[in-house]
Amino acid sequence: MAGLWPCSLTVRHPSGSAIVMRALRGRDREEWEELRAANLAWLRPWEATSPLPPQARSSFRSLVRHYDREGREGRLQPFVIERDGRLVGQMHLFSIGWGALRGGSAGYWVAQSAAGQGIAPLCLAALIDHAVYGLGLHRVEVNIRPENVASLRVVAKLGLRDEGLRLRYLHIDGDWRDHRSFAVTAEDLDGTSMVKRWRRGQPGGLEMAPT
Ligand SMILES: CC(C)(COP(=O)(O)OP(=O)(O)OC[C@H]1O[C@@H](n2cnc3c(N)ncnc32)[C@H](O)[C@@H]1OP(=O)(O)O)[C@@H](O)C(=O)NCCC(=O)NCCS
What is the chain's Cα-based Rg? Predict the structure, then answer.
């Protein structure tokens, strides 16, 4: 798994701004904590929680170290999303499995102030291209609560396959929640780029800028 992490992905948003997906760094602390605090209520209904008794919250430094270790060991691709140099969200490929599976699950959030601008679908497209062509994975899935209309729109925009309902699949917002499962495999991409496909569906056009 050596060499898979850290890495960064850069894509151009249709507005012209640069979207960079990169590792969380020690010097992000102040900006990160402000962003998280400003979005607590926005994120709570959709955030993973632990079914175990509550434990002390881990420090920012240990979070950065955890992401780094999991990334280097090939289990996680923990990106933050930066737009024009400001943090606006997070996107992970987690539960990465190798061997006969070669797949992982994508999870994401975008700050409320940046919502509705197509950042998540563009980043998810970049993550899928990276997973398939960069990491050599076969499958990426996204699991979404049926109530999460905005996130259902994200996978619909990229044409991910609906693979049905998983009952009580993940512990979210304090309880086991049903999720709809969406997936894409390397065969679905057939050598094409998900970012390019996404751009073709955008108003105005085909290619907008190099990825
Ligand atoms: C789900 C989420 C990541 C979508 O990100 P995004 O970058 O806003 O994605 P899009 O711009 O494609 O918008 C998706 C949908 O959000 C809704 N939306 C649009 N503007 C919005 C706004 N200002 N505020 C809230 N929702 C908005 C619309 O339903 C939109 O679909 P549409 O483009 O067909 O109208 C984001 O809403 C979010 O972070 N939500 C909270 C955390 C979460 O749900 N994470 C996913 C868990 S599976």
Answer: 17
Q: What is the pLDDT of residues 54-95, one digit of tens each?
A: 788 889 999 999 999 999 999 999 999 999 999 999 999 999
Please give the structure tokens belonging to residue 172. 């979210």
Query: Measured between alpha carbons, how far is residue 72 from residues 24, 54, 66, 93, 96 in Å?
Result: 14, 27, 10, 13, 12
Between the CA of 98 and the centroid of ligand 1 the distance, in Å, is 31
Q: 84 and 17 in contact (C-beta within 8 Å)?
A: yes
The whole-model pTM stands at 0.96
Query: Could you give the CA distance from residue 126 to residue 104 in angstroms, rounded to a whole number?
Result: 14
Atom of ligand 1 nearest to the CA of 112: 24
Domains of the chain: 9-205 (3.40.630.30)
- CA dihedral (150, 157, 75, 81) positive or negative: negative
Neighbours of 43 (CB within 10 A): 16
121 Cα distance to chain centroid: 9
Distance, CA of 17 to CA of 111 (rounded, Å): 16
Residue pair 163/171 in contact (Cβ under 8 Å)? The answer is no
CB neighbours (10 Å) of residue 65? 13
Output the CA 150–ligand 1 centroid distance in Å: 4
